[in-house]
Amino acid sequence: MMRELTYCLSIIAALSCLLFSGAHIASGQTGISQQPDAADSSDSNTHNLASKRTYHGEVEPLLRAHCLECHREGGLAPFSLEGFAQAKAHALTSLQMIQQVSMPPWPPSARSLPLQHERCLTANEQQLFAEWVQQGRLAGHPSLPSDNTISAVTPQTIQTKRPPLGEPDAVFELPSSFEVPAEGDDIYLYVPIPTGWAKDQWIQAIEFEPGVASVVHHASFMADTSGTAREMDAETKEMGYRRYGGSGFTASNTLGGWAPGAQPMAFPPGIARKVDRGADLVLQMHYHPSGRVEHDRSRIKIHFAKEPVQKQVVELIMANLDLQIPANRASHRHVAEYVLPVDVTIYGIAPHAHQVATSVLIEAIDFETGPTILLEIPRWNMNWQQVYVPRAPLTLRGGTRLRTTFVYNNSSSNPRNPHQPPQDIFWGEQTSDEMGVVFFDATTNTPEDLKFLQWHNQNRLTASREEAARHPRGKIEAQ
Description:
20% of the residues lie in helices and 28% in strands. It is of the alpha+beta class. Strands 1-11-4-8-12 form a 5-stranded mixed beta sheet, with no helix packed on it. The protein has a 5-stranded antiparallel beta sheet with strand order 6-3-9-5-7. It has a 4-stranded antiparallel beta sheet with strand order 13-22-16-19. The two termini are 32 Å apart. The N terminus is likely disordered. Keywords: Disulfide bond, Signal. This is Copper type II ascorbate-dependent monooxygenase C-terminal domain-containing protein.
C-alpha cells in the first residue's frame, strides 16, 4: 500500500512540477496579480479584441520559452503541451499550481548563490497566464500575434532558458531492455558498454534519457579501463551485474549522473571531463519497483568538447556515512564536512537524499571571511534533483571548510515516510533507506593539485565508511 502511495505521489509531483522552466521571479512576488492591464483601465467593463489574452497571441510564445523543453513529444514530461488543445486541457491545473507556488519547480531558496537556468515565471508572466484562463482560454489567430506578446514574454526569459546542446557525438543505449519487477527490493544494475574510442575523449556534456522514468530512481556514469566491470558482467546470465555497496571496480573517471528533475549540464569552453581511450562506459542503474512490471532501455547522449581543454573536471563527494535517524524523530540534523586541501573552482553542486529528508543547507566556510551559503533547499523533494550551476564559477581557496546539513523527518507526520509506523533509518542504497551526500564538479589550478585532491577526497570517504562500519545497524540508543 505504501509503495503504491509513494508511486502516486511521484506521479503527482511530476505532473505538478514539470510544466514551466525559465526566468527569475521577482523577489517576494509569489501570488497571481489580479490588477487590470493599463489598456483596460479606461473601461474595466469592456474587453476589446486587443486586450484579450489568446493562445496564439501570448500563451504559445510563453509555453515555447518555458515549457516545451520538457513538455513535448518524446520529452521528459508525462504529457505534451505542443498545441492549443493540450494547453487548454491542462490550463486550470497549471494555474492552480502557479498560485500555490508549486510550479515552476525551483527548490533553491533566495539565500542560495545566483544560479543558472532558474525555473521561475516573472510576475507579468504569471498574470498573463491567469488572464488567459480567466478570459476563457481563447485560441486567437495564428497569424495575428498580440501587440503585448513581446513585452509579456520578456528577453530575460529567453536568456535564462537552458541552451540546446545540438546533435550528440555519441549515443550509448542499454544493450537490451531490462525488466523491472512490480514489487521487491530496489535494484542496482551495472552495465558496461564498450566505447570503442581509439583516443582519449573530452566530454563537454551528457544527456540521459530514462526509458521508463517511473522506475529509474537515479543513474550514475563512470569509465572503466581495467576491464573489471566487463569481467563481472560476463559472470552473469542477464545484462550487466547486480551489486550493492559500490561498483566493484575503481573507476578511471566519474562522469556525473541523473536523478528525477535533472536537466543536462554543459561545462564552459575549455572545461571538460576526460575518458581514456578504450574505456568501457559503465551505467549504474538504480531501479525502484513502481507496482507494475516495466521494461527499461535507457540511453545517454555524449557531447565532445569542441575547443582545446585547459582544465579537467573531477567529482568531489562530501558525505558522513554514519547516518542514523531515530524513529519518530520529526527533525533530525545530520552534518558532513570536508576541508579543501587545495584551491578549487566549483562548476556544479548536486545534493542527493531520499524520502524522509526535508531540507539541505550547503555552506563554504572561509577561515578568514566566515560562512557563505552556496545552496539551500528548504523543502526537499526526492523527485526533483539536479546539478545546480552557479552563474559564475565559484573559486574557493585551500583550507575552506565545506559543510552540508541535512534535516530529516522520520515521523508519521511525513507523508513520504516509507515506514508506517516509523522505524529507525540508516544510510543505505534502498529507497526506503536514506542518504545525505553532495557532489561537486570541480577543477584545480594544476594537474598535480588535481591528483592530490582526488586522493584526499577518496581518503576522507574511506575514513567515513570505516567509522560508519563501527556502528552496525541495530536499535538506535536514545539520545
